[in-house]
Amino acid sequence: MFFCLLCHGLTPPQQDLCPACRRDLPWNQHHCERCAEPWPTPFHGLCQLCVADEPFYDQCFAPFRYDFPVDQLILQGKGGKRAELLYALGRLMAEALLQQDVVLPDAIVPVPMHPQKQNKRGYNQAGVLAQLIGRRLGIPVHHDLVLKVREPGDQKNLSRSGRQHNISRAFRVQRNRLRACQPPLRHIVLLDDVITTGSTINQLSRQLRSSGVERVDGWALARTGKDIYTQPSSPL
After folding, report:
1. CATH number of 28-223
2. CA 201, CA 226: separation in Å to the nearest integer?
């Protein structure tokens, strides 16, 4: 017998959510085809930012908007209160990737945490998701190709160019390890729990491309919209 994570009602075998709660999730149905930023109405094409300032990544995929209750599930999962929620969210994401027929990469690289922060928390939520999704989809996961060498500080109140500059030296691609991979990694996915502005994915994509990677995509559980800081979520 299985119980829904949200309403605690009965669910089908091997399912984390009942059909009703699953339908009510904030699915990211309408979004920019490049950065996956949510839009409130049906939308096809690129947003103004992607047209005006072409990103270094090829495409982002995020099955959910960063909205209730997904935002609370992510926060509780990575905050250590209910780490098992990351596995449930990862299973949902793997299903969505297969249903959307997303182009699969040669490897998944989780966006790293600073070592001190990861040691304090005990795990990197992006690494947990990457392992589960990689195993489900049969894709190798590399945890040692990108390092976070400094904390860039708060990004919320910075301009787009300010955010890019702020994180430009936060990460380092391990080029020797990347070049030693056999077969060569031509297509890499950077995986994170949430894409907020896309600045981190963009900077890492820039470094990976300069290291010889031909295609870089960004995957995340959820993508924030323009109103993320003005409409707080209700607690679970």
Report:
1. 3.40.50
2. 18
Phi/psi region, residue 153 (left: phi>0; alpha: psi -120 to 50; beta: rest), is: left
Q: What is the mean pLDDT of the chain?
A: 89
Q: Which helix (H) or strand (E) holds 119?
A: helix 115-121
CB within 8 A of 61, min separation 6: which ones? 36, 97, 100, 102, 217, 218, 219, 220
Q: At what angle do helices 85-99 and 125-137 cross, to 10 degrees?
A: 40
The arithmetic mean of pLDDT across residues 11-31, rounded, is 92
Per-residue pLDDT reduced to its tens digit, 145-166: 999 998 776 655 666 666 666 7
Residue length of the chain: 236
Calculate Rg over the CA atoms of the chain. 17
Domain boundaries, the chain: 28-223
Q: If we measure between CA atoms, which residue out of 223, 220, 191 comes closest to residue 66? A: 223
